[in-house]
Design goal:
This protein is an alpha+beta fold and 131 residues long. The protein contains 3 helices and 8 strands; from the N terminus they run βββββββαααβ. The protein has one domain. Helix content is 34%, strand content 16%. The strands form 3 sheets. A 4-stranded antiparallel beta sheet has the order 3-6-5-4, covered by helices on one side. A two-stranded antiparallel ribbon has the order 1-8. Strands 2-7 form a two-stranded antiparallel ribbon.
């Protein structure tokens, strides 16, 4: 049996989201990125919510979702790592759009930038095996 740990949430409805990720096209089982920047995240996509010192709130659920999709695209090599700062900024803007208090959104954004400044994207949820 093969499985993964670490997911807390699963998207119940398909979601569309406008991104600044222009000029790239990515097709995946659970998401699609169109050249014009439209991201479609399909029902069933699983993610872990906010990471690090951030706590899950209504105001960062969508932000953590689109950020995780962007990071997954980079980790899988279907989106260039050049886009990491753009993906990180998507978190900040999306959290603000959801009504997050600006100082909290800024602190979470800075923590994200610090985390990804190493240039490494570890597999947070490796495939595990059990008998």
């Amino acid at each position: 049996m093969r499985f993964k740990r670490g997911y807390k949430y699963q998207l119940f409805d398909t979601l569309s989201f406008r991104t600044p990720l222009l000029g790239e096209s990515v097709v995946h089982e659970y998401f699609t990125l169109f050249v014009a920047g439209l991201m479609i995240i399909k029902r069933g996509y699983a993610w872990d919510g906010a990471s690090g010192p951030a706590i899950d709130r209504d105001t960062n659920m969508r932000a953590s979702l689109v950020h995780d999709v962007g990071c997954q695209m980079i980790a899988e090599g279907v989106l260039d790592q050049f886009y990491q700062p753009v993906v990180d900024k998507m978190y900040y803007v999306t959290a603000l759009d959801a009504g997050m208090w600006k100082p909290i959104a800024w602190a979470e954004y800075r923590a994200i930038r610090l985390h990804f400044s190493t240039g490494k994207l570890p597999d947070k949820n490796p495939i595990l095996e059990a008998p």
